[in-house]
């Protein structure tokens, strides 16, 4: 097996008695699989937490982290010269993995099923390529940048039932789900503010989804940080970039489809653009949880060099940066009250997995007289492209109906905050509510 990802971090796993059953083949990848020792916390059907959304919905063991590990072990221990990643039982087990990262936090051993699944997808993509639907979701934002007229086609598809029906028949994109419509004008970086002793620099990562679909989230973040005294510098391609006309991208959509080499190429572009910030110790602030946390996590598995360790220490979600700076006495922007306004906050799965909910609550608590409540819900069920896939659309909404959507209906007049792009889509489709990014709410409370 020639792994697509770097699994060397697991080289010493399995040395002690706590680990058992390392598969016969797969090298360090097999050791990462064997991190699971059958604790079965992933097979809980109640209680707080995210892990494991598909098991909570179906109650079937194969749709838990443990069930997927057993399927992986079966193929890694199989006979024959090649590892059979086409095994139908493995495909069935992986089908409902949402890549939520809940297992990495909530499993006592920290099994990273999302990353294990990425290797599985990469091995299959290497052998079979991608279906048109997978290519659409993997390259969608890149295509929008190259061919802006695609936005008109998306809007037509959403308004013409026949077009949506044909999309479901030909591509497998759920006709009942509206595709996200790109903004008429994508985000354009303002002139960079000059850094001074009073205005320390901040590097802002504007991800592809924010850039093309919700550019006002980036503008809100820039306004809040600028008002607080920071010189915001929007990241642009580095000098010498082979494709300087193309916006930077973390590579999340590509990695989620198993296109590891393409994701690695995008990650290298981003790390090159960040080289001055890394060298200077400048904080890197992001808006989309799944993109920002990729800099802290998956970049270690892409073999990008020593700068990734430094970058991981400098990367913050917007509200993480605000909470940290406020605690250090450097963020002094005084917000006006949103007196008596009820705010429900839904956390993205990756926010919950990486401990991002407490900073989010602390940042929003800077707004006086805010009636703030964190919604105790697991995965919203959208999970990137998952909720758009015809065979998964109904399951996606069932996941949202488990906890999230009833909580929103119980507070019909509340403002809803959700930092995840997919989460905001699910809330819009399932509850007919428009959720906002934390930066947008904080801008509204500015003097």
Quick structural overview:
The protein is built from 22 helices and seven strands. The protein is of the alpha/beta class and 447 residues long.
In words, what does this structure look like?
This is (Fe-S)-binding protein. It comes from Pseudothauera rhizosphaerae. Residues 343-426 form the Cysteine-rich domain. It is a single chain. The protein has 447 residues and is α/β, with parallel strands linked by helices. The protein has 4 domains: 8-128, no CATH class; 132-171, no CATH class; 201-326, no CATH class; 334-444, Rossmann fold. It has 22 helices and 7 strands. The protein has helices spanning 27-33, 53-58, 65-76, 88-94, 102-106, 113-128, 132-146, 150-159, 161-171, 208-212, 215-227, 252-256, 260-280, 289-296, 307-314, 318-327, 349-353, 357-364, 393-402, 404-409, 421-431, 438-444, and strands spanning 201-205, 231-234, 284-286, 315-317, 341-346, 370-374, 415-418.
**How many strand elements?**
7
C-alpha Rg (nearest Å): 22 Å
DSSP helix fraction:
40-55%
Order of helices and strands: HHHHHHHHHEHHEHHEHHEHEHHEHHEHH
Distance between the termini: 59 Å
- Residue stretches low in confidence (pLDDT < 50, at least 5 long) are none
The tally of structural domains comes to 4
Determine the structural class based on helices, strands and strand pairing: alpha/beta
GO molecular function: 4 iron, 4 sulfur cluster binding; metal ion binding; oxidoreductase activity
InterPro entries: 4Fe4S_Fe-S-bd, 4Fe4S_Fe_S_CS, Cys_rich_dom
Keywords: 4Fe-4S, Iron, Iron-sulfur, Metal-binding, Repeat
Protein name: (Fe-S)-binding protein
